[in-house]
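As a warm-up, study this chain.
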Amino acid sequence: MASDQGSIDPWNEPYSGDHLSETLGPAYTFNVDTRRKFTMMPYNELWPHYFQAIKAELVADLADGNVTYLSIEHVGSTSVPGLTSKATTDLSSNTHHKAVIDVCIVVRKDEFTLDTLRQFEEALFWGTRQGGYQYIGDGGVEDRWSFKVNGVVPPRNLYVVAEGSIPLRAYISLRETLRIDAGLRQEYDEKKRQLAELCFDNVMQYCHLKRPVLRKIFLKGGWTNEEVDEAEKRTKRDWPAPTPADFYEEYDQLFMEGHKAESEASVATSPSLGH
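Now compare it with the structure written out below.
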């Protein structure tokens, strides 16, 4: 794998392997702090390759389902060279998985309809290259559909968003600003690391405390304070004042809580508890 990296542009070249699993090493296992719902992973140069592999699977499955779209984008922390990213914790196997890869499929605004949603649901669930994706709602975010698939490495968040929507602008603005601005990238990276230690058992609190630096990033990316305020108002949440970057975070929390619940259920029913 390492020998191929010099000949591949990981941001633009299509994935040439047969299946995503061939590109991935195993998750790594050690004595995981079970209080910790997530940990931080240093940047890995393979992340863009993982995205390209996931994208290749999506392209094939969506083509089989005759689903049309404009583009498939790599977004989130793993799309920014040099930036740390969250990694999920699987308490049932005492394992930290690889970082979550955020993937965004863009569709035309006039095609962001219930009929299109049904097409995505069918194609993503029954796809032969990966499949298994389940629609988990919009999380109160306008112009976005969220999908999850469990039991795959690396874990990924899959979003379908409307062209010209606030979620899409937030994803692209954060990615492009941090790729270009080394100072802001370092500031954001340091804040993520600090908050990961402070809020290791509460992803929502972690997101909440990132808001000041995120606003700074969005303003550098061309947003006005009024536009960020409007984005916050249009994101319906049950905790204070979300920001555009919350579009990344909410389902990480649900995903990790789901893993914990599965782990606890497994322990409770295990016949080996008495030994």
